[in-house]
Amino acid sequence: MVHYRPVETDDSAIPAALRRFMQNRLLECAGLFMLAATLLLATCLATWSADDPSWNNAIDAIPRNLLSYPGAVIADEMMQKVGLGIIAFLAIPIIWSVNLIGHRTLNRPVVRCLAWLAATLFAASVLSLFPVPQAWVLSVGLGGGIGDIIAETLRTILSLGLKGLFASFITFIAVTIGFFWSVSKAIDVKSDDLVLSSRIFGGRGQDIVAQTFGTIGHLGFRFRGAFINLHHAWRAAREAAKGRRASPELENQADPAEAAGKRSIFAPFLSRSLWTTLIPRRPSSLTSSRERVEPVMSTTPPRAYSEPQPASQSGEQSYRDDVDTLEDNPSTPQRVNRTAKPIKQSAKAKRANQTAFKFSDNAGYEMPPIGLLAEPKKSARPAELTDDALEQNARMLEGVLEDFGIRGEIINVRPGPVVTLYELEPAPGIKSSRVIGLADDIARSMSAISARVAVVPGRNAIGIELPNSTRETVYLREMLGSQAYEKSKQNLALALGKNIGGEPIFADLARMPHLLIAGTTGSGKSVGINTMILSLLYKHSPDDCKLIMIDPKMLELSVYEGIPHLLAPVVTDPRKAVVSLKWAVREMEDRYRKMSKVGVRNIDGFNERIRKANGKGETFTRTVQTGYDATTGEPMFEQEEMDLSPMPYIVVIIDEMADLMMVAGKDIEGAVQRLAQMARAAGIHVIMATQRPSVDVITGTIKANFPTRISFQVTSKIDSRTILGEQGAEQLLGQGDMLFMAGGGRISRLHGPFVSDTEVEEIVTFLKSQGAPDYVDAVTEDDGEGGLGGSPIEGGAEVPGSSGNELYDQAVAVVLRDRKVSTSYIQRRLQIGYNRAASLIERMETEGLISSANHAGKREILVPGQEEA
């Protein structure tokens, strides 16, 4: 076949080489001009903000757009019309400009322009079908107004049942084909290009393909950090918009320039370098420049927080009350309560000539004066608690968490007297157990002594508590001299300390109703017990509150010897401690009998009934049996007048439970169990402390009956779980730093007040001058009844009415009568503990009654029985 090719003739006067040179230069200039125009348009879109002045936002403000007012207007119109479809609008001219710079002409310009517009519309319509994210600040969808119109048409088609399903399938195919056809026409992809591309994969072109993909992979790893930063920036913008929508009224109060930066969806990209290594994600308020942060912190009005109510605040207040809910944008980590509000002093504490507190009407008795306690020293505000320092620590903490794979935001910072609380709002999918397990790593990375991490109850936040480099000392005087303590209506108010916010916390022992305290040596446990005792002594006279102090260590509570509040001298002998606890049980049962006769349910009702009866001159009688009739044998009864004196509260203070459990574990546990279960209504309360919170000291029975607990610093996580049921006490700082678990398992961190030994001695001296104590001999003297309330303690009590020799005689009689000897047999027959039975067996062996155990563990009885004799 013959092929004909037209012959080109050059009729122009310009040489062909010069004409090609001029044509190439013109193409290059056109390509560069198109590329520059596209980049300018991209710049104004990248710096677009919804708060800039435009045709849709007529305000008198300086636009933040890099191209000033024209750029703001153009960008706003583009975003309003096609939304993110502007990306397709910008991508195709870039390809055209590259082709022009490469000396390739653009054929069929009309078709290309129509295809360009069609591709933009198709992209906008597809984007409008997707749900609008939280970070989107426009009222239209992702595809702008035009995309919404097309998408609404498609949604109408999709809602027509089976016809709509078929139409949607056809529409999807048409949109897909139309989009790719438009793009191919816009960039003029020809069949020759496809053939050339297929030839590349053959022969030596394989090396080129391998090098190309290798280069792409290398660049991907090189810019991995930038892509992750992009992702984090979008998430930050979305969460900021979410918080802003949750509080629309606060958005109007913010600075316009700052609000504009927060509302701009491109603002996160401008606040950091995208081509550096991976850096922690920060909200816009913390990643902005210093010149931008300072005006916001100085002009933003102070936040309105709910005023704390220390007067009615009990120790059972939840940890949620310690971390107040912010009334500002939660995505902005700013300081709250920069300095703790000063504790309001009572009128009596303000008087210079004050001599004593008159809390009671007891004639002839004066409460100890507040002047015996040391005055609190005024300390300057530490430099680490400044706004800049706290903000820097928040940035650093987020960076540390980001290094360990924990994404989230520090939404609140609460500086306290000893520690500073950082509230972390974790990203979706982050388990709280992961963050809690990083406590030691967080402390190491933050160069802190320790760090405590716990979930804030009722909120999507995790509290991270870091210690301050300079601790503020909490003094007992400022707590006992406060209005909250003087006006408190709590029956047995205990000054526990200050919470993280610096507010004083008082707990009512009568409502607890018992308190379990644990802490290692040097943790401040003894000082804490002293502050609790002084809290009672400063508010109650000896007629209102009586104390029983058990101190096996003979050091901590012996200083209170001789004060008029004691029912007995300070008990130091563990055996007498058992007797004292048994007396408390008998007193509890006797009080219940009295309340039953009067017809009341608790000690407060009994005392109120007695006061009313005394005021009216009434008497209460009870029927008692006096004997039996000699002739008939029937019992004889008489009417006896009851004692109408009010019953005081009785507080039993046990300083070291571990020593008592080692000597008489079963007896102590049984007595404490009965008191803990039943003594609340009788007005008898127990404060029990130990420095060894192990399971053999704090048994399950004791834990079940002591719902209110305080843990000072302990040595291990196991001890923390034993006392509190969770870890965290091992991260405390010591010296009065404590975790208070109120009823229901709510845990809050407190800082106990300090009181020196000199202050305690001066107060004790003053109390001794008020009068001598009225001791009850039965508290420390065994009446021979044994047991608790007439019944032996299960598993470990002695046989009722039996001394050591009598018990041994009974054991010998059992062995000689039954001709059986073993530790378990003696234990069962006499109903005693294993240790006591083993001691009796060893004594029999020593005295020659039985032989030593053979290889099988059996013993022979060496003394003949009564029948053999």
Coarse morphology: elongated
Q: Cα distance, first to last residue?
A: 145 Å
User: Which structural class matches the secondary elements?
Assistant: alpha/beta
Strand content: 5-15%
What is the average of the pLDDT values? 73
Count of DSSP E strands?
15
C-alpha Rg (nearest Å)? 42 Å
Low-confidence stretches: 191-206, 245-339, 347-361, 784-803
Relative helix content: 40-55%
Largest sheet: 7 strands, mixed
Give the tally of structural domains: 4
Strand order of the biggest β-sheet: 8-11-12-7-13-14-15
Q: What is the CATH H-level superfamily of the largest domain?
A: P-loop containing nucleotide triphosphate hydrolases
CATH architecture descriptor text of the largest domain:
3-Layer(aba) Sandwich
What oligomeric assembly is this protein in? single chain
Individual helix count: 31
The CATH topology of the largest domain corresponds to: Rossmann fold
CATH class assignment of the largest domain: Alpha Beta
